[in-house]
Amino acid sequence: GATDLAWTWVQSMIESPTVVTTDSVVEPTETYDYSWTGPVSGTFDLVGVTPPATDEPTVVIDGNSATQSDTGYRGVVTGMLDVLAGYTSSGSMWPSVGTYRDLEVVSFATTDATYRTGSVPAAADGTFSLASSSPGVKSFQLVQISSGAVLAEYRPKTGLVRSYGPESAIPETTFTYDQALTLQSAMVLDDSSTTAMLVQGLIRIQTASGAQTGGFPAASPQLNPGGGGRQYFTGNHTVALYALTSYLRYADREPSLETPVRDAMAAGLAWLEAQRIKNGPRAGLYSAGWSNGVLDWAAVEHNLDAWHALSLAAQILPCSQCELQADDLSAALRSVMWNPQNSRFDQGARCDGRDTVDPLDGNSWGAIFLTAIGDSAKADAALANAQNFAVSHGGTTGHLAYRPQPARPAPVPSVWVEGTAGVALAHARAGDNARQLSIVQNLRVLQQSNGSFPMATAADVNASLVMDTSVAATCWFILASLPSSPNSLWNQWLAALP
User: Fold this and answer.
1) What string of DSSP letters covers 358-414?
2) What is the mean pLDDT of residues 79-84?
3) Are 284 and 328 a contacting pair, CB within 8 Å?
4) Contact, 488 vs 476, CB < 8 A?
5) What number of helices (H) and strands (E) belong to the chain?
6) What separation in angstroms does the CA of 392 have from each of 70, 101, 397?
7) Paired sense of beta strands 40-45 and 127-130, if any
8) More confident residue, 275 or 87
9) How far is it, in rounded angstroms, from Cα 191 to Cα 226?
10) Contact 220, 160 (CB under 8 A)
11) Plot region of 328 (φ>0 → left; ψ -120 to 50 → alpha; else → beta)
């Protein structure tokens, strides 16, 4: 079905984006440490490839160095002394293998991005060796020089999912939010092996030391989970916390991962506590996080995410402090963020006042929260307001990220897939399964043949929308299609209903 096809594409995004053209294999001699800068070596095996011609080494026996009958000789075979190197001997060593004319092994190192660090002709005996390397996660490719085709690749597994397709400007970046949604989708589809891999990948992203210990940075290179750490957003962080907590209630979880998950949650909850606003009119809310300093901004969507994470943590850990914080946050959301004149949530609040912009998530995610706490009247009002975001584009109907309003008078007509799926989930949580199904069916029109969904049907710079294939969009389609799963997103309160 559509969800299985979507999941197949998402799983492919856990793999390398490199197009590898043969079944050949290239492997390093060992797993080199991130900080290693010395020589690296390895082997390769050509499979399904006719070995190309070789360039044989030119070796001439120098009678002054050895005789042809001296079969044990392993020294210099061309008579030359290097004046600049203390008159040491130099030249070709005997024996010496040739190299394939059209093949090379290329080395890479990934830090904040992936960089090419060297190359060497592929030796005819199936080995390679480079004299030095660079700091970073090491990877290697066996490349046909004439065509540029990659015949084989060695790329460490990190358990991270690439957020956007190869057409994107950032094809090897993992956004923490997307990693968490992928983990939630894996549990919904009961894919236990992928779930375990994604849990480990999510934990690898978490910052282990320094001022932001316990925080989940916004993004990391897929090959280097520790390569993020520049920005920490409370919304991303709390969606990651929710996914990890969900894993502790997942029936087919791996016992060996329980302790690492609990440790990651404890550190994550401590980081979240540091973002809590303790004084003033916004007390009980959470600031947006950290980016070269504290972000003095309390967004409604970040705080809705935080409420779900805290309320689930209170159930699963158990965590009495989490329960108190969730209660305080629930009260603050309704007293500070709810706009009674317009019967909806505002976008957020700064220390100098409220931001009354009306975003789609404030209504859809807001309705889920309001339904969860039993305020059906406000939930109905939020869902009714979401209809003001309706748009037709790309051969289907859906929702805008921002409706036309004074702050955004002319949004680009564009169906935002992720946001539209959020509206579907909100209707399911409110008990309107017919409306949920209708929205999901309209979204199916946008599913591509490989199972993926675009982020949006048209680009909108002002709303940060692009048309690239998107893991977040595709996972949201899965989550909105299967809202009754026991592992579904933001359903922790359903078990308490009569």
Assistant:
1) -BHHHHHHHHHHHHHTT-HHHHHHHHHHHGGGEEEETTEEEE-SB-SBTTBSS----
2) 53
3) yes
4) no
5) 12, 22
6) 84, 56, 4
7) antiparallel
8) 275
9) 26
10) yes
11) alpha
- pLDDT of 225 strictly over 70: yes
Q: Which two tokens stand for residue 354?
A: 């409220």
* Cα dihedral 19, 23, 24, 30 sign: positive
Give residue for tokens 């084989």: 152
For residues 185 and 475, is the Cβ–Cβ distance under 8 A? Answer: yes
DSSP SS3 for 117:
strand
- DSSP per-residue string spanning 67-106: -TT-TT--SB-S--EEGGGTTEE-S-BSS---EEEEEEEE
- 3-class secondary-structure state, position 59: coil
Section 87-105 average pLDDT: 71
User: Within the chain, what is the greatest distance between any pair of CA atoms?
Assistant: 100
Contact 142, 151 (CB under 8 A): yes
Distance of CA 159 to the CA centre of its chain: 9
CA distance 128 to 29: 10
Give tens-digit pLDDT for 165-196. Answer: 999 999 999 999 999 999 999 999 999 999 99
Strands 338-339 and 294-295: unpaired
Q: Find how far residue 97's CA is from the centre of its chain.
A: 43
Q: Is 220 helix (H, G, I), strand (E, B) or coil?
A: strand
Q: What is the pLDDT of residue 62?
A: 52
CB 101 within 8 A of CB 53: yes
CB burial of 388-421 (b: ≥16 within 10 Å; e: otherwise) equals: ebebebbebbbbbbbbeeeebeebbebbbbbbbb
Judge contact between 48 and 23, C-beta under 8 A: yes
User: Nearest CA to 245 among 261, 260, 259?
Assistant: 261
Contact 284, 331 (CB under 8 A): yes
H or E, element range at 129: strand 127-130
Q: Mean pLDDT, the chain, as a whole number?
A: 92
AA identity, residue 412: V
- Given the DSSP bridges, would you call strands 298-299 and 294-295 parallel, antiparallel or unpaired? unpaired
- Round to whole Å and give the CA distance between 326 and 275: 14
3-state secondary structure of 286: strand
**pLDDT at residue number 66:** 47
pLDDT in tens, 409-426: 999 999 999 999 999 999
pLDDT at 55: 82
- pLDDT per position as a tens digit, 472-490: 999 999 999 999 999 999 9
- Residue 281 sits at φ, ψ, to 5 deg, of -65, -15
Residue 266, amino acid: A
> Closest Cα to residue 261, out of 190, 340, 180, 323?
180
